[in-house]
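DM from R.C. (forwarded with permission)

"hey, sorry to bug you on a friday — could you get me a structure for this? deadline for the figure draft is monday and I only need the backbone to look sensible"
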Amino acid sequence: VTNFGMLGFFKYFDFFVDNVAAALATMGLPWHQPTLRILLPVGISFYTFQAMSYTIDVYKGELHARRNLLDLATFVSFFPHLVAGPIQRASFLLPQVETPRRFSVDKATSGFGLICWGFFKKLVIADNVGVIANKVFALGDPTFPLLWSGVFAFAIQIYADFSAYTDIARGTSRWLGFELTENFDHPYLARTPADFWRRWNISLSSWFRDYVYIPLGGSKAGDAKWARNVMVTFLLSGLWHGASWNYVLWGAYHGVLLVLTRARRILKPAAPAAAGRKPVVAALI
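My reply, with the result:
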């Protein structure tokens, strides 16, 4: 309650007040909005989720409570990944905080390589294709092929930009003796929406899977409850990305994609088994 209360106040107070004012205005009820304007602390979404992973894991008995406040504070506010992740679990990063570290030439070298690769993706790839995307989207009436070129340029930009930050964060962490989890696994090679979310922003996807989707029942419930669990998870994920209805609709869009692909797989007729051979049970049932 404390962690989510702070996140909700700082990140969603203005969003809630603006929507209440708009709803009352449509009903003809005058209401003066409070003059309080909340400044969003940098990185609050990320370190809130890290603190929550510690709290939940301790509650579930998967992690023992720590008694060293400095170690816990270092885990929650570890600065290389504080602004854009990847989100770390307490069970993964906290033992590294508590373990003595020594300088390693091999880790420093590999970390430097990650940092250089990250800067290359950001400055050479993302920033340059971003110019193309911005020019296309600024056009008043772009042609269909031109519009799609802007879409593909933006897809490359957002991936190169986000994964670049992850590489830089992982590289600088190695200099300090820490290892962070990978956050991307060739997401644009995914074959299905579910496969995409196993490859894109892995730390956030797995966080929502373990702390929202599975506690709701996951895929063990019936199809209707499974669809509900997916939609709730993605709606919350969209709202986490930003206090705007655009992000909520973005989460709903991806949730519907997963539900529809699951429905298509269920409704698809099974292929007949070859003569003389036993049918093989698919691993993803």
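R.C.: lifesaver. Residues 274-285 have pLDDT under 50 and may be disordered.
me: no worries. Residues 105-137 form the longest helix (33 residues).
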